[in-house]
Design brief:
By secondary structure, this protein is mostly helical. 55% of the residues lie in helices and 4% in strands.
Length: 106
């Protein structure tokens, strides 16, 4: 079993971690999935706010990040956890692409 400090600060990957530690890593570590999502301030550029995009891609509004933060490791499967993590990484990539396009158009 890993320590909280290792999971949230020192670990670079969740490989080999149990369900509880995997969830904690991706929710609280700077290398985890949720940390890759844009934050609310990223949707502001030159005094404009990109309305709508933050509902899909932002760290606080993304459906899968909310699900992972609320997931009970005793009640979900490893597949469900990994699926949510995959969807979060996909949203992070799409979010960055969306922000780049919006900034270029602004």
């Amino acid at each position: 079993m890993n320590t909280w400090e290792y999971i949230t600060e020192d670990a670079t990957t969740a490989a080999g971690m149990n369900k509880r530690d995997t969830i904690s890593f991706h929710c609280f570590n700077s290398k985890g999935a949720i940390a890759q999502l844009p934050v609310y301030e990223d949707f502001c550029h030159n005094g404009k706010f990109f309305v709508g995009a933050h509902y899909i891609y932002s760290k606080c509004e993304n459906y899968h990040s909310k699900w992972l933060m609320a997931a009970n490791p005793k009640k979900v499967t490893k597949w469900e956890i990994n699926n949510a993590i995959s969807k979060i990484f996909d949203a992070a990539v799409k979010g960055q692409e969306c922000l780049a396009k919006k900034r270029a158009d602004a």
